[in-house]
Amino acid sequence: MYTIGEAAKILGISSHTLRYYEKETIIIPDRDENGDRRYNDSHIQWLQLVIKLRETQMPILTIQRYASLFLEGDQTTQARLHLLEEHKRSIKQQIRTLNDVDAMLERKIVAYKNYISKHKQNDFKS
């Protein structure tokens, strides 16, 4: 079991973020006899997924929905699958967009380097 500080360090996020996820019912940590939050390995794995989902622009409301469906049990498996498939489609579109922008930037960078290189050569000829 991990304290909130230990869990935050393992996950590379702040304790504040963990409290926020709890407030938004994305995670429900265990509590010790003093009422302090305790996170187990399953919590850590779940939060690692949450962090990746956020990094790929999944809205908090969608993560909340997924968490809620999970807590409802096996009868929500199809709904959870659909939610993840939708997000995967979104990620694929993000990848296409990023690849397009990457190619555009590469062309611009090459053009600038060529321009700079030509002008430096002309400077030496003067």
TrEMBL record:
Stored InterPro entries: DNA-bd_dom_put_sf (IPR009061), MerR-type_HTH_dom (IPR000551), MerR_fam (IPR047057)
Gene Ontology molecular functions: DNA binding; DNA-binding transcription factor activity
Alphabetical list of SMART domains matching this protein: HTH_MERR (SM00422)
HTH merR-type domain span: 1-69
Protein name: MerR family transcriptional regulator
Lineage: Bacteria, Bacillati, Bacillota, Bacilli, Bacillales
Entries under CDD domains matching the protein: HTH_YyaN
Coiled-coil residues: none
Alphabetically ordered keywords of this record: DNA-binding
Transmembrane intervals: none
